[in-house]
Design goal:
By secondary structure, the chain is α+β, with helices and mostly antiparallel strands. It has helices at 6-15, 36-43, 53-76, 126-135, 137-140, 142-158, 188-203, 217-220, 225-231, 272-277, 323-330, 336-349, and strands at residues 26-27, 81-83, 85-86, 89-90, 92-95, 100-103, 106-109, 117-124, 166-173, 179-185, 248-250, 261-263, 268-270, 292-295, 300-303, 306-310, 320-321. It has two domains: 17-203, Lambda Exonuclease, Chain A (Alpha-Beta Complex); 217-349, no CATH class. A hairpin with a 5-residue loop joins strand 9 (166-173) and strand 10.
Length: 360
């Protein structure tokens, strides 16, 4: 048996992660984020899927620690029932045809108070935990606070349950295993604003202006090179799919919860598999292309001295480029000769690149 050095095993453990699947809906847990552009780009599958072993472990650890706290309620505190699942599924529901969905951590029945209390559990490192102790939950994370406001309001609106206005949050210190607890009052005006924000976002045909500049720490520290390029408008999305095509449209008025999408060009409904795959007729949402649109009928753009068309793969003119070829151009300083070499391959073999990523 061939021996593998220990240092290679360590590298393997971090280099062989599998990209996490994309969310098919806008998550209410994120609706409180400061930047609507970031939300839009995620929901429209413009950013690459998460492919980072460390982040995967962080997510998994969060689930494990949440289960630990849930077990304290279930096994060690008498007179309290914690409900985390209903019919084997996490409790939750959706709005706007299933395009906005939420799933709660649990409901507490204390048996001494009227109504069920929304329960939310988070984790934090020591630095963040100290901030939480100083400032309280709302200032510690306005995003987390918005999340529980939405969950509580949605449960009140959509269920017949007697939901209390008093919410319990727990935060687990990952360094010391301390557990923070706070009772927070529901604020219905915040819930209504968040729901309106979600509806506005789902109706957008183009990405809104970002809340962050390229030099802001949210961009520099928490986005990859690829994500930064897309967020700041330097790159198009690297993945060509139906979500970032100008012909796709979500049906937010549908009465189902299936998050239905359709193609305006082909006049057909799009399955999740269809959306992921995309097609050779793809044309980017114009605002995702880092060039000036000068003809919105034929999708003609100008980038400095270069004038080009975002065209289907069937069009082979010198200045006709597919979405994938434009993605390649935007990551290669708009060196057209390199892209024309790709076009020759496409013409010869009847194929095109459907995914492009920056080298990091």
């Amino acid at each position: 048996m061939k021996k593998v050095p220990i240092d290679q095993l360590v590298n393997l453990s971090d280099d062989n992660s599998t990209p996490l699947s994309r969310r098919h809906y806008l998550g209410a847990s994120q609706i409180g984020k400061q930047c609507s552009r970031e939300l839009f780009l995620n929901w429209r599958w413009c950013f690459p899927p998460i492919n980072n072993s460390r982040l995967e472990r962080i997510f998994e650890l969060g689930h494990i620690l949440e289960e630990q706290i849930a077990n304290i309620f279930k096994d060690k505190i008498s007179g309290v029932d914690l409900i985390t699942h209903e019919k084997g599924k996490q409790i939750g529901s959706s709005f706007f045809g299933g395009h906005l969905q939420y799933h709660i951590d649990g409901l507490l029945n204390t048996k001494t108070s009227s109504g069920l209390h929304l329960w939310e559990c988070k984790t934090a490192n020591q630095t963040r935990y100290k901030k939480l102790l100083r400032e309280g939950y709302k200032k510690f994370s306005p995003e987390y606070h918005s999340q529980i406001m939405f969950y509580c309001g949605a449960l009140k609106e959509q269920t017949d349950l007697n939901i209390s206005d008093e919410i319990l949050v727990n935060v687990y210190n990952k360094n010391t295993s301390e557990i923070y607890s706070e009772s927070i009052e529901f604020e219905p005006t915040i819930y209504e604003k968040l729901k309106d924000k979600a509806q506005w976002l789902l109706n957008l045909k183009e990405p809104p202006v970002g809340a962050y500049r390229a030099s802001d720490y949210q961009v520099k520290n928490f986005m990859s090179e690829e994500e930064r390029g897309i967020y700041t408008g330097k790159f198009t999305p690297g993945s060509v799919n139906c979500r970032n095509c100008r012909f796709s449209k979500p049906d937010i008025k549908n009465t189902s919860d299936k998050a239905i999408w359709g193609c305006l060009k082909k006049k057909k409904l799009l399955s999740i598999k269809d959306q992921q795959k995309g097609c050779f007729e793809h044309q980017f949402i114009p605002e995702l292309v880092p060039a000036r649109l000068i003809n919105d009928r034929d999708m003609v753009y100008q980038k400095d001295d270069l004038i080009f068309t975002n065209s289907p793969a069937s069009e082979t003119g010198d200045d006709c480029f597919t979405s994938s070829e434009i993605a390649f151009l935007s990551r290669n300083d708009w060196k057209v000769n390199d892209t024309r070499n790709l076009k020759e391959l496409r013409s010869e073999f009847g194929a095109e690149i459907l995914s492009v990523e920056a080298n990091e």
